[in-house]
Amino acid sequence: MEFKGAMGGIYRLTEWITRLAATNLLWVLCSSPFIFCLILKLFVMNQNLANESLQMNWALAFLTPLTLFPATSAMFTVVRKWVMGDTDTGVFRTFFKGYKENYKQSLIGGIFYTLLLVIMYVDYTVYMAQFSNLQIVGVIMLILIIILLVSMFNFFSMIAHYHMSIGQMIKNAVLLTLIRPFRVFSTMLGSAVVIFIGVKYPVLFLFFIGSVIAWFAFFNFYGTFLKMQDQMEKMKRKNEEKEGSEDKKSDNS
Length: 253
Fold this sequence. Notes:
By secondary structure, the protein is mostly helical. It contains nine helices and no strands. It has helices at about 5-30, 30-45, 50-85, 90-130, 135-160, 165-180, 180-200, 205, 210-250. α1 packs across α9 and α5 (about 135-160) packs across α7. It holds the Pfam family DUF624.
């Protein structure tokens, strides 16, 4: 039964709230080991426990590719359906289908991103703290860390949208971040706003924060994808017209 008017608007709103909450809950469930260690990490930091904080860093680095990346890629599989207009898809079935199909690629990608970020962060802290005359290198490392972090939005979107090798996916995610920075950095700023609201109301992390950020990230990615596809089609038509005019000239001669 389809509702109209104010009742229809309320019904659609509750549908979207349910979709976002269900997807976010599945993401929290599948990445719960990482989230649990992250909460412990924040707790030991607050208590100034240096050794325990270091142990939590190792645990987080281990759990990130095993749990967080596969769960996030599955969440992007769900929001991809929504952005592309398929809002009636089953959240549970789509989530775990994406989790299963993309687990290997997200695991490998998670290992790559985690190792690279750890190495860059160590370099950044060393250059900034111990080599005052080489702090420019630390600044460069910080810029590279930001680019790598932002490229993860494109990485998860590509896992959900493309079928390509993991190497191509990581390379294209970074390249797309560099050549199309506006949409990606707008995703980062939008995510920062959403996280800021979540800090004010922590319960939102359980139900909405992850799925809202994923939806916004893929929305921006898909907009970039459509724009680039349109530009490629225009270039193709232009080349075909050019070749056609050249063929006519050769026939006339």
